[in-house]
Specification:
One of its GO terms (biological process) is monoatomic ion transmembrane transport. This protein is mainly alpha-helical. Helices cover about 55% and strands about 10% of the residues. It has one domain.
Length: about 325
């Protein structure tokens, strides 16, 4: 089936649009479907903490949007609003779609390749492909011979798609850093503090990033009708989940950025040499008769056929176009 042709999909792209999408989807569902806790926020009026009357939904929504912690000492005490709290699940949903962009781009560019090439890649999966006398084999050799020098665009498109995937990773890092008030980019560096948490006043870096207990004050500016100001103390139940999820997410993103960057540099600097060497049979020289794009097509064929079949195809092509 020509729709199953994967000319551009490599390991790096699959890590993005398969594995990372699953991670982001789980993050969204865990919060939106209340997997961890039934209520995301529990608030009590500070003037009457013994009261069992639940906070009305109007005030609770305000507290979800404008919870704060007090930082500093004495006259320097100031409020730091945890504005990002209610937007985290929607950020997970947004990133789920963002990480599918490389896959969409891959499919779009795959549609632009010729029907002959698609047919060759599909036929490469057939058992008869390795037989030099088979129709499929002869068509593949004929295609490669007739289209020599015309595949460089495919090679550079492959590099471009990996750069796109890296761009999504960097965007994700910046998005979480903005939502978490500049704390996400260095969040993984606080891992040693897991062994010296401060549950007494939550002054450690992890608890400051995801404070489990916050305050909320409903003042006249928040109310449509005039009313007395009300102060609440709130337990943000999902903070204990977030602090663990985001430490894993930080390491995953850092690993993805590093391996994607290294891979892009590798295929740009050494890719042509590795591809050509991997595609040529033993004892053949390399001259500028064919381009790296041509060898890239052969290299992709190796994902579908055995080494023996590849050898037959490459030798058949090289015998017609000897490399001196």
């Amino acid at each position: 089936d020509e729709k199953s042709v994967t000319l551009y999909d490599g390991m790096i792209l699959k890590l993005h649009y398969q594995v990372t999408i699953v991670i982001m989807t789980i993050g969204f569902l865990a919060v939106s479907q209340h997997w961890y806790a039934e209520q995301d926020m529990i608030c009590k009026k500070l003037s009457n903490v013994e009261s069992k009357i639940p906070l009305n939904e109007e005030h609770l929504n305000i507290c979800r949007s404008y919870p704060y912690v007090e930082e500093g000492e004495g006259e320097e005490v100031h409020r730091r609003y945890i504005l990002y709290y209610r937007w985290i699940p929607w950020a997970f949903l947004l990133l789920t779609t963002m990480y599918y962009i490389p896959r969409i781009a891959s499919k779009t560019f795959t549609r632009t390749i010729t029907k002959q090439m698609k047919s060759m890649l599909v036929n490469a999966r057939n058992e008869s492909f390795g037989d030099p006398e088979s129709v499929e084999f002869k068509k593949a050799v004929q295609y490669i011979r007739e289209n020599k020098g015309s595949h460089n665009g495919i090679y550079w498109t492959y590099i471009g798609l990996n750069c796109l995937a890296l761009g999504v990773d960097v965007f994700t890092m910046f998005l979480w850093d903005i939502l978490l008030q500049g704390r996400f980019s260095r969040y993984g560096l606080s891992l040693p503090e897991w062994y010296k948490r401060n549950p007494k006043d939550f002054s450690d870096e992890i608890s400051r990033t995801f404070p489990p207990f916050v305050k909320c004050k409903i003042e006249s500016v928040h109310l449509i009708a005039s009313a007395d100001a009300k102060a609440y103390g709130c337990h943000m139940t999902y903070m204990q989940l977030y602090e663990k999820v985001f430490i894993l997410l930080w390491f995953w993103l850092v690993i993805m950025i590093i391996i994607t960057t290294v891979y892009i540099i590798y295929i740009m600097l050494f890719g042509p040499y590795v591809i050509v060497k991997g595609c040529l049979t033993r004892g053949r020289g390399v001259q500028g008769v064919t381009t790296v794009g041509d060898y890239y097509i052969k290299f992709r064929l190796k994902a579908h056929v055995s080494e023996a079949k590849c050898k037959h195809l490459f030798e058949a092509d090289l015998d017609k176009y000897p490399l001196k």
